[in-house]
Fold:
Amino acid sequence: MGNSISMAGYTFVVEEKKEISGEDLGLLQEKLLQLNWGVQHPASGPMRLKVWVDGDEVVKVDPDIGYVLRLLEKLVEYRTWINAIVNVERACFIDNFGTMTGYSIAAEKIAGVKVPKKADYVRTILCEGGRIVSHLIGLGSFIGVLGVHTPMQWALIAREKFLDAFEVYSGQRIATASIIPGGVRYEPTGKFIEKMVTAVDFLEKEFIPRYGEVFIDNPTLKLRSRGIGVVSREKAIDLGLAGPALRASGVASDMRKDYPYAAYGELDFRVVTKEEGDAYARYLVIWEELIESAKIIRQAIEGLPEGEWRTKFPVKVPPGEAYVNVEWARGCFGFHLVSDGGTGPYRLKMRAPSFANLWAMPEMMKNVKLADVPVIFASLYMCHGDIDR
Amino acid sequence: MNVVKKVALIDLLKGMSITLKTMFKPTVTVHYPFEKVPPRERFRGIHALKLNPDGSYRCEACYLCAEMCPSNVIDMEMTEGKDGKKELVDFTVDLTRCLFCGLCVEACPRDAIVMTDIYEFSQYVVDKLILHKEDLMELGRYYQEWERKRK
Structure:
């Protein structure tokens, strides 16, 4: 050895050269490489994907979750019927109204409480507001994973108007804690309605015409997302996809239409479906649902009845159980609530749509290019708080 | 057509016209520590104990707010006073755990516990985040003044 290290006085004991067998190197022998996509990745959020790649091609994906586990289902068991909403809303508080509505309807079913009509309408307005807020973030972050972060800021401008309305209604912008078993907590004042109408006006007249070209007719976006992560209609049902991802595969499944709750039975709206089933179709479904939600809010504001917005909810609820599905922003959210006759829930099981989408993802990510992993991930429209709970 | 478009810089002009238009629109962002947005009417800030006109507290130590609290923030201590009435010894609100859901305010039958519009209350010492009876009554005086102004 004539290199500089040996000349500097160091001595190395070089073992006899062996033939290296592939098994010693594990996956490397098959030219497979395991990559960690996340936890620090800007698009992944608090979760890790173990991605095995062969060159540029993804062989296998294994999601590793649990970074934002808060044991919400267990925490609810230590709460009373009313104040359990603060734990339920934290399943994902981008759209917290949907989860609170689902829990409240389940509790009302067990207790046999009938909610006033005004509360139903206010719930509908808030739920659709929450859906728009969530969809705007979904759209922004979808373009965000492609490396362009400015559209996210545009989406946040529109979102800000809705948060303003929520703040007028409940006092807080995000963790509103405004829907409880027995109705809604606050009276929908004229100022709140006014703010909501301004927000919807901004969305329909400013945001959609002005940014629609960038968000929808974007050649880069089409190039990256068309024909990627295709799920056929049959496969989507087999995998148990939920929400916009399911509707993009041509399945017109929407809890608001199938099993109407709150005031959805009395309102006129369309279930957005697409036939292609690729990432771009899922993205388009989210975009068109924005327009539908804006229409629902307008109708609900017009039809807002007079009267009480809250009834008394009993302290102790008779034993029984209820299962309620609500169409949350990210899909069908199920609540299985059990009462043993006490002052609080005995057990609450939350069926999360993002969790269903997450476990369909490894199937969809087989034999795609590594660069498509973030696109498929973002198009499934998952929330990490919802996955872990 | 494409060549004409490129030579006449139509796309560039289109973009610049939008830039010019937005230059004169009001900004969306707020430079927070220097500019502040006033809180809404229903804003839920830190707690306060409301006072009677003669300066005594309204709280009767019924524990309803403590029952209602989702994160066990509120604790109180009471004794029997001289005239046989309940008397508060201490009333603590642990702000380190509080969610600011406002359910305690809703539960109070005497309108004694209220929420002010204060949202800047960070401290260097954890103990200072635990409000005692005197702090809450001080905040109550602030709240009543603020309420009078609002009317």
User: Anything to note?
Assistant: The domain at 47-150 of chain B is CATH 3.30.70.3270 (Alpha-Beta Plaits). The mean pLDDT of chain B is 84.
